[in-house]
Amino acid sequence: MESSLGISESHCLATVRGHVLRNGQKEPRLLSLLECSGQFTLDILANPEAIVLSPVPQLSIPINNHFHIVREAEEALLIDLSINSTVRFRLQGERTPELLLELQDDIHTQSFLQHVTKAKQQAEKRSSLPRKMEAVVPVPVKDCIPVPPQRGNSKSTSNNINNSTLVQSSKTDSAFSMTTDFAFEEKKNQQNRIVAQREPPPPPLPPLPPRKGTYTPSTGPTTKERPPSAQNSTPVRNEFQSVDRSSSWSDSPSNNTMRQAMMSSHAGSREGLLKHRLSKKEKEYVDIKNFSFFIGTWNVNGQSPDSSLKPWLCSDPDPPDVYALGFQELDLSTEAFFYMDSSKEQLWVDAVERSLHPKARYIRIRIIRLVGMMLVVYVNKEHKHHIRELASESVGTGLMNKMGNKGGVAVRFVFHNTSFCFVNSHLAAHVDDFERRNQDYKDICARMSFHLLEYPPLSIVKHDVVIWLGDLNYRLCFPDAGEVKRLIDDKELRRLQEYDQLNIQRKTKRAFTDFMEGEINFIPTYKYDAKSDRWDSSGKCRVPAWCDRILWRGSSVKQLHYRSHMDLKTSDHKPVSSLFSIGVKMVIEQRYKKVFEEIVRDMDRMENDFLPSLSLTQREFTFENVKFRQLQRQSFLITNDGQVPSTFAFIPKLNDSQYCKTWLRAEPSEGVLDPNETMEIFLEVYVSKDSVTLLNSGEDKIEDILVLHLDRGKDYFITVAGSYLPSCFGTSLETLCRMKKPIREIPITKLIDLGEDSCMEKEKSRMNFLLDSAGTEDKPLKIPKEVWLLVNHLYTKACRQEELFQTPGLQDELQSIIDCLDTSIPESIPGSNHSVAEALLIFLEALPEPVLCYELYQRCLECSHDSRLCKQLISQLPRAHRNVFRYLMAFLRELLKHSIDNNLTANLLATLFASLLVRPPPNLAGKQMSHDRQKTNDFILGFLMGGDED
């Protein structure tokens, strides 16, 4: 084998596949460790698939004293059902930029890193010995980019601040570039400001599009995520080909021009003010130009493509500028349900790319998949330099708001000066579940958040244009399938649409209130017999419905076509498309330059004459009767009563890393106000599983002080107080076993005593010390009454429930169940079987220590292959934990006896319950590798399949 340098006798020691993270995007790489005459190099190939045909690395890094590879710290996930985990490393070499790499957390990666470590050690030994000659490894020109200054060195920063523009990448159509941008790795809570003298602004470039609201670049702590969003989707891939990092990427006012204009002690805030004021005067320097957008959606019912997609994607004579295509039910396998790779993804992507409009050349800018939902976006190649701020996100609304069998995936970007967001969703099924569909829609809106450098998280609605597509699953409130088919044959579609659930929900403002939809002139797209145009002839004989829809919100949007495509018969759904003409804001540079200079002069004058000031309508807030998982909101108004624009932000108190406690949030947490402008600030209190235990035990209280900092002004202090109602959720099993009454009937002082007693009970249990000498009334319960109530309800009423533990409950019902268990010992639990099932999972997830105690986690991994050792391990658990584990396993085995009715499998239950019952200790939660997760699954699976006779 010959190396990329043309030196013979080079030997490849190890290879591994991974991704380079750049600008918030993932790009595939192949890493190879090579040895030649005792010298080591790490070669990085941009296109892993080209290794056989063209094994020339885009980057070749010598392993010497300048070579460093360091693992990134990780945050613990709330719940992780994925068996694919990753680790991140920072890699720095001689005369090369620092790279952020993401590799699979598996044995293969560990072996590769061990080889790299040994190579590094050998290189260090050689460096201490006299050497005749040291070979210099050339770096490809396209990879030679300026290395940004280290963030901790203010001198370096000020000296190199104008070097933000990256060297343009090669003009070829290579699929990837090795350039990196350190700004995207900068921590949002960095407080340091760049200090330098202000310089006259050079001719500025067009600005980023204005944000919705009055946000400014974030320099404070990141907003806490509540409720948690699904993070277990398959890796997002950026297929942006041959994109030059030119002025449209790195020379925008946010990165270069504005920085040069605002080198002062408050550079960040001045930059934010400038952006804010530019957005206010946008009409003075922006013109509108129309572009065509083709939007398509198709539920493919787990099928593979069996024909050309041109009847769908080439419906118009002229090629569109942008394609956004959403698929649902791409893969219906159990493996895909748990976020594993889908073999059908690439089949459909290939089918799409063969069928794009032949009159234009397209590049794929982003593809994202969550289980069966996939969204892929293409742009005409001539527009690639005008796409920036590309990001994608996914939200699962399935069980516990995490599983991705239902939910949404989204892609957002800025095209010229207009921001776009495309959302592809698959909402809850079944005719009568329109309320659950409404809830899914609200969850996606609330939890879908895009994280970009220098900006607070962007929600869906904070975009100029939003297009929502997918299988929304809204049906017809018309039970007679025969009558519906007759009306369709008579072309009385408008009459049928009066019964359409989506139209009804929009009119009553319960979902998609701000969205528009074009007139539907095509027959329902669901449900057909596969491979035909016949309506459903199965025993269920489903009523036809317009499940597949495309809606939009935003200005300058005109729908040209809204249609179905009956020629395609692969699925039980028909594909739907919409062609839009959308006005995009184009910056006129000369007019923009004039406005920019006027604003800078005006800001200079005002900053010399005035200081900012705010007035607040309220500074003390009380939240009474705060409950677990029940949101409370209050608001107050802030007004800029000064004569200059004011930048505000909530900042951490001394020695704190966040501006507030985990159960509190301010929205917005930062912003800009013009003189006499008023803004409403919401304070939200939400007790999640991460904060409930400390509140239950009395170690924390609903008390906090927020510091509202005004740039170049004073700080305002806001006090938050309140009362908390303890919950059995988030309370230890030992404590609950000592409670004969509901937790709300027990005084807080008694709760503290019970917590201390439970710790003693746990120690005694380990030494086989039972409280036999105590009176009967003092003996603890064998299992918490709350566990018994939930499991007994499911055992008696839901063993044959279809899709149990797969369909989420309703939020209102979940809150009723929590309140019921906290306040009473009910004869029956309110809510549907699905809500009770989810309540059980939430209870297990919120336990301060899982059923299988943290201290036994490592032993669990070691004995997962041996059922005898597994049973011995369970026998060593504290009494309450041991009893709960055996009780749950007996219940799950009973469920599996009815698998024909409830569609449950042992693998599905093992994967789900292993993530709750066998959690790694907090210090290992972010480092759990895929094979460790598989061992925990095997541990539970052994009890489900073999039983526990002890």
Description:
The chain has 950 residues and is an alpha+beta fold. The chain is 28% helix and 23% strand. The strands form six sheets. Strands 4-3-2-1-7-6-5 form a seven-stranded antiparallel beta sheet. The protein starts with 10 loop residues before the first strand and ends with a helix. Mean pLDDT is 79; it is low at 1-8, 49-55, 74-84, 131-205, 210-235, 241-265 and 765-776.
Chain-wise SSE layout:
Elements (H helix, E strand, L loop, with lengths): L10 E12 L2 E12 L2 E7 L13 E4 L5 E4 L14 E7 L6 E6 L2 H21 L26 H7 L86 H4 L6 H5 L5 H14 L5 E14 L10 H4 L8 E7 L5 H4 L5 H13 L6 E9 L2 E8 L6 E10 L10 E9 L2 E9 L7 H14 L1 E2 L7 E2 L5 E7 L9 H9 L3 H5 L3 H7 L40 E7 L2 E8 L11 E12 L1 H21 L4 E3 L3 E7 L5 E9 L5 E6 L12 E4 L2 E4 L4 E8 L3 H9 L5 E8 L4 E10 L8 H5 L10 H19 L18 H13 L13 H13 L9 H14 L10 H7 L3 H9 L3 H18 L2 H4 L3 H12 L12 H17 L4
Parallel strand pairs: 8-9, 14-17, 22-29
Antiparallel strand pairs: 1-2, 1-7, 2-3, 3-4, 5-6, 6-7, 8-20, 9-11, 10-11, 12-13, 13-14, 15-16, 17-18, 19-20, 21-23, 23-27, 24-26, 24-28, 25-27, 28-29
Gist?
The chain is an alpha+beta fold and 950 residues long. It is 28% helix and 23% strand.
Characteristic key phrases:
globular; 28% helix; single chain; alpha+beta; 7-stranded antiparallel sheet; 25 helices; disordered N terminus; 950 residues
